[in-house]
């Protein structure tokens, strides 16, 4: 396999300059074009190129505070990658389920020689970004050292704020992870892990803030009928007794839980974010159902 260290260093340098300075309006598209230009032609090199690329993007997102303009800049760059022309062939070999979220799959083929799966993708699918996102959802961890815990918490919130922005801007359409995070933070008793209380609540608030409106319009109001696998994947947590998946009842429960947990937050910043998110959910739902009354 080819070594893409030089290419990654060049891209990372441009990303650092882009996020930290006052770049031209063309900078995001220019970086995306560089990514496409350096893209390997050999199928066996695709993962070696895209894996480190998305790892770099994720690391930058984790390091950019959830309320910093760098988050939006990074979203704009990923958006430009999504808009790259469809004429570049991207083939990924291996277990396709490890590479992307389920509903981003396009055409899959099976090699008769060794039974491996091949996914043919386009840049608009942001190939392998879903796999990188899945690597980030186990946690957050609890640390004994307060400084280390603060770093873990901040990184976790920053990442999910970034992911929520991508969904909210229509760059991605991945609604599995947000539901799991809302379930983790709002449908379970958080008293057993007090160090992570504010982390879970702030994460939920950021998901609502940056993708709640489109979540309601595309997932909650037009409630989908789930198959048995989806019912298991999107099952309620221990505190919610309703149906699996996105539903108006679950949305209302989340808003109520945000208000309840806001009173328990140790930080005024998190408390205010939770109350704001709850109010946004109430207003959006009221507006969306006003014509039905």
Report on this structure.
- This protein is mostly helical.
- A hairpin with a 6-residue loop joins strand 2 (107-110) and strand 3 (117-121).
- The protein folds into two domains: 5-127, no CATH class; 144-288, no CATH class.
- A three-stranded antiparallel sheet has the order 1-3-2, with no helix packed on it.
- The chain has helices spanning 5-20, 27-37, 46-63, 69-82, 129-134, 146-168, 176-186, 197-220, 228-233, 248-262, 268-289; strands spanning 90-94, 107-110, 117-121.
- It contains eleven helices and three strands, in the order ααααβββααααααα.
- The radius of gyration is 20 Å and the shape is globular.
- It starts with a helix and ends with a helix.
Class inferred from helices and paired strands? mainly alpha
Name the strands of the widest sheet in spatial order.
Answer: 1-3-2
**Overall tally of domains:** 2
Mean pLDDT: 89
Taking the sheet with the most strands, its summary is: 3 strands, antiparallel
SS element count, helices: 11
Global shape: globular
Order of helices and strands: HHHHEEEHHHHHHH
Distance between the ends: 61 Å
């Amino acid at each position: 396999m080819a070594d893409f260290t030089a290419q990654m260093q060049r891209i990372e340098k441009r990303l650092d300059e882009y996020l930290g300075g006052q770049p031209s309006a063309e900078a995001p598209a220019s970086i995306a074009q560089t990514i496409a230009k350096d893209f390997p032609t050999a199928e066996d090199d695709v993962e070696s190129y895209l894996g480190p690329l998305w790892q770099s993007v994720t690391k930058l997102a984790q390091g950019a505070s959830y309320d910093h303009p760098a988050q939006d800049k990074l979203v704009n760059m990923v958006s430009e990658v999504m808009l790259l022309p469809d004429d570049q062939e991207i083939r990924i070999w291996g277990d396709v389920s490890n590479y992307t979220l389920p509903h981003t799959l396009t055409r899959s083929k099976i090699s008769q020689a060794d039974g491996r799966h091949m996914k043919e993708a386009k840049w608009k699918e942001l190939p392998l970004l879903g796999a990188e996102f899945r690597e980030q959802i186990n946690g957050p961890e609890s640390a004994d050292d307060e400084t280390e815990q603060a770093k873990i918490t901040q990184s976790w919130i920053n990442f999910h704020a970034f992911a929520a922005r991508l969904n909210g801007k229509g760059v991605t359409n991945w609604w599995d992870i947000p539901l799991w995070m809302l379930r983790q933070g709002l449908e379970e008793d958080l008293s057993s892990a007090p160090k992570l209380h504010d982390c879970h609540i702030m994460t939920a608030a950021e998901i609502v803030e940056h993708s709640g409106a489109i979540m309601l319009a595309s997932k909650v109001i037009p409630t989908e009928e789930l198959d048995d696998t989806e019912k298991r994947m999107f099952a309620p947590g221990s505190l919610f007794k309703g149906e699996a998946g996105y539903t108006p009842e679950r949305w209302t429960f989340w808003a109520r839980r945000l208000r309840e947990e806001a009173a328990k937050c140790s930080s005024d910043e998190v408390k205010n974010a939770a109350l704001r998110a709850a109010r946004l959910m109430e207003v959006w739902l009221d507006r969306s159902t006003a014509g039905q009354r």
